[in-house]
User: Which sequence fits this backbone?
């Protein structure tokens, strides 16, 4: 039977509508699946990540809308349960095995997020600053600020062992005591600054996060190598894999015959630079909307990261996404001079000057003019590449040659 033109047109329209409805149905189902994934992943992360209470550790909560988060990077070679990492990780990060290292906080950084979307600031505290310990863990009143964690943990472990507490329970309770002691120490050192939350990261967590999002673009002012950390980098812009990224942030000496004198402060500046570079990568790679990468990062968090029990992951992710867009700068607290105390090399600091600086950083004046331009945007000569290949950025790299000038986020910086 021959179909009339009108009938044929109606059938084509019907098929088109059915096709459109099918596409809409697929999109709706995808959105539902995505929403379900987010909910399930969020619940999974909240149920799996180690949490510690810090209620009342640094005073009553202030209803100002501001947030202070302490980032603690441990040099321990074990996970959050005290278990060794896989040997492959030790090999990749040049960390030998679980018997090496202790519970020092080799990275201490206060992230201040102001109310109403103002520019955030990251304040790095050099790990060897010689400070007072308010808790006097194990009877120790003063020491390197990085040692507050380990001293408190050891004192707590001994006390709980004497009480006959099971080893696994004692270990977790002692980690909590160590976090609280570190937060008290940092808060007092900075002049009573309230710390609302903490994020604790192990060496394995750092490596596995870098592994999930590699390669990471960095920029160096000098060619340098170090047999201890495994660093071996040319000058210029280059892309690093996860193992190279670990060497990049751990290097604090140059073992070549060059006259480049690298210090621990350069390592602190590299840690800041890496966070900026990582933020740039996360933003460019749309990691916050990539469910596969998010799941990998959450899997890492459940093994090798600890948070306080009040830090909301969704809010934190939103803040991190904002900071990834360049809305943060980093500073390193100054050192007055170096000295030796009880056979250890320490940083002697002017506590009053540091507290005044931190106060000004956390309470900046209301801007009345356009912000000052970023540091020099000239790139260092050369464009070396790591073993993962090189990649030139689309915008010039700001160059930093010392630790005193604030490091601005937004694009990959060149550092020592």
Assistant:
């Amino acid at each position: 039977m021959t179909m009339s033109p009108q009938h044929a047109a109606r059938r084509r329209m019907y098929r088109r509508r059915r096709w459109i409805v099918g596409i809409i149905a697929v999109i709706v189902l995808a959105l539902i699946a995505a929403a379900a994934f987010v909910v399930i992943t969020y619940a999974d992360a909240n149920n799996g990540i180690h949490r510690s209470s810090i209620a009342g550790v640094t005073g009553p909560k202030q209803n100002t809308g501001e947030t202070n988060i302490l980032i603690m990077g441990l040099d321990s070679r074990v996970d959050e349960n005290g278990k060794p990492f896989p040997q492959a990780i030790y090999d990749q990060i040049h960390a030998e095995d679980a018997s090496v290292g202790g519970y020092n906080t080799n990275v201490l950084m206060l992230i201040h997020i102001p109310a109403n979307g103002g520019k955030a600031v990251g304040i790095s505290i050099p790990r060897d600053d010689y400070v007072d310990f308010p808790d006097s863990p194990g009877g120790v009143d003063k020491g390197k600020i990085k040692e507050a964690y380990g001293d408190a943990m050891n004192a707590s472990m001994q006390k709980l062992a004497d009480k006959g507490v099971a080893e696994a329970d004692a270990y977790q309770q002692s980690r909590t005591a160590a976090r609280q002691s570190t937060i008290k120490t940092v808060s007092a050192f900075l002049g009573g600054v309230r710390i609302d939350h903490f994020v604790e990261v192990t060496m394995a967590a750092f490596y596995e996060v870098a592994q999930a999002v590699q390669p990471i673009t960095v920029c160096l002012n000098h060619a340098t190598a170090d047999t201890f950390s495994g660093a071996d980098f040319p000058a210029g812009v280059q892309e690093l894999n996860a193992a190279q990224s670990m060497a990049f942030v751990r290097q604090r000496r140059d073992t070549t015959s060059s006259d480049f004198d690298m210090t621990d402060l350069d390592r602190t500046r590299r840690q800041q630079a890496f966070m900026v570079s990582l933020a740039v990568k996360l933003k460019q790679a749309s990691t916050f909307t990539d469910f596969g990468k998010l799941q990998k990062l959450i899997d890492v968090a459940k093994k090798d990261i600890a948070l306080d029990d009040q830090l909301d992951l969704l809010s934190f992710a939103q803040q991190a996404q904002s900071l990834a867009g360049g809305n943060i700068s980093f500073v390193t607290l100054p050192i007055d001079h170096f000295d030796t105390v009880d056979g250890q090399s320490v940083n002697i600091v002017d506590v009053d000057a540091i507290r005044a600086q931190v106060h000004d950083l956390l309470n900046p004046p209301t801007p009345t003019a356009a912000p000052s331009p970023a540091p020099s945007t000239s790139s260092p000569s050369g464009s070396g590449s790591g073993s993962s290949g090189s990649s030139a950025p689309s915008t010039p790299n700001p160059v930093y040659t010392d630790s005193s000038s604030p490091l601005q986020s937004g694009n990959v910086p060149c550092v020592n």
The two ends are 83 Å apart (CA to CA). Confidence is low (pLDDT under 50) at residues 26-40, 381-393. Residues 219 and 237 are 4 Å apart (CA to CA). The domain at 51-365+373-415 is CATH 3.40.630.190 (Aminopeptidase).
